[in-house]
Input
Amino acid sequence: GLRRCLISMDIHHIEETFQEIKKTIQAKDTFQNVTILSTPETLHSIKPLDVCCMTKNLLAFYVDKVFKDHQELNPQILRKISSIANSFLYMKKALQRCQEQRQCHCRDEATNATRIIHDNYDQLEVRSAAIKSLGELDVFLAWIDKNHQGPSA
Amino acid sequence: AVLCISGGLPKPTNITFLSINMRNILQWSPPEGLQGTEVTYTVQYFIYGQKKWLNKSECRNISRTCCDLSVETSDYEHQYYAKVKAIWETNCSKWAETGRFYPFLETQIGPPGIALTTDERSISIVLTAPEKWKRNPEDSSLSMQQIYSNLKYNVSVYNTQSNRTWSQYVTNHTLVLSWLEPDTLYCVHVESFVPGPPRLARPSEKLCVRTLKDQTSAVKV
Output
């Protein structure tokens, strides 16, 4: 069967980095009635078999879209975001290698969940969408932590 | 709802969630300068991503400065906001609002249950995982271990005679401390720990037990 591709990176270091800027970032998000990750329809419906693909898709979402669209003026916060972005880049490449070894298969479930997230993002003005996505990093990191426990690939 | 002049009072302060084992209590301090006066408070809460603020009927026009929102925030994988305003005669404050509250990452994990048994040179420790808060005592229990599969325990042991303390992290629920001194009082306290973003910890009460007297020296007499 398809061997799960597990991220061996220390997610807790990223969680701690985000924890330091979370309150500030979330305070800038004034649209409380909208979420980007919409977890009940997306992350919470992902089966173990689709964890790798979903992780890869969401890392790409953050690296290729969110971090690029977000404009940060505060140098301390910018430093933390850059640190997180670099970690995501590293994880994205690791999962890319997994895909090349045909161990990160993408089924409709992960593809549909990813599309919901992109649709949510595109419905907001880009700066608001980026800050909201950053504010939901704790949800994504907690999901990675929960789903990528176990012996690494 | 009684109409009041909004902004006529300063806002309540220090509004935050105190969360232990998913029991989520909203708490705040009276507005500056109004301690001791007959101010009342009204609370609302919001589920992140939903459409509107919701009332908490048991926390309308209350005089205490806390409100149990455990039921309303029981889905620990959602995130929430809460807000409170002060009312005094015909004046009321603007809303004071919490940041985004994420029970799954922010709840404090209470200490485990601890049972100690001892013989001459060892102490056996049996830990029972803390339980998630439940609305009714007769509701089925959910262990915090079922929510946090990577839950660990930091066991600290203190030798009251040598004044030495040592600790170790364990994941399973039974632990035997060996090579101890006979007839010595040892005290143990345990803290639950979940790897991840830092969260406040709730150490257990200290539990002390004395190892038995060394039977071999007793026989020589």
User: Anything to note?
Assistant: The radius of gyration of chain B is 24 Å.
